[in-house]
Amino acid sequence: MKTGARALGVAESYRSDAARSTLAGAVVRADRVVDGFAVDSCTVGGTDATETVVALADRLAREDVAYLLFAGIAPAWYNLIDLHRLHTAVDRPVLLISFEASPGLEPALHEAFAGDALESRLETYRAQPPRRRLSVNDETVFVRSVGLADDEAADVVRAFTPEGGRPEPLRVARLVARAADAWQAMDGGTLDTAN
């Protein structure tokens, strides 16, 4: 992969006492150069996370971004990401990366929701591609992807992970999300910016 290839990484910072969860997007090149940010929020326990990620990508308006990476599938207390809708909206490959082994979310969804709220989340969750275990720099991550073959997805994750197991776009996005969340908690600021 060329060193100038770019990915948009999106990660979350979640506070249990907040009604909204901070999502940050970071455009990072494969050679680790950071090339842009956007910050927004989605509803804790809601169903707007996918649309929030689309809004981040749209506001950045970066045609040079080749891939979208997201940390996890269920930010903001089970506000599920729909890879297929996200892929269609951003028109580029989408990879969801998680960092822990898991038996899946269905038991937790059954504990947290009932009725239509449960059924809509189960429908979204079951429609997602399966997680695949991937070894990266002697660490293990789990990858779901839409818009590229499994071996290509593995190449993308490895190319954007120069050390450790967290791809650089996700590492940087998580730092930005945490900083924005801390600022908002301290000053009561409103998040809705892109640079």
From TrEMBL:
User: What are the coiled-coil residue ranges?
Assistant: none
Listed InterPro entries: Endo_dU
Kindly name one Pfam family recorded for this protein. Endo_dU
Q: Which family does it belong to?
A: Belongs to the UPF0215 family.
**Protein name listed in UniProt:** UPF0215 protein C449_16498
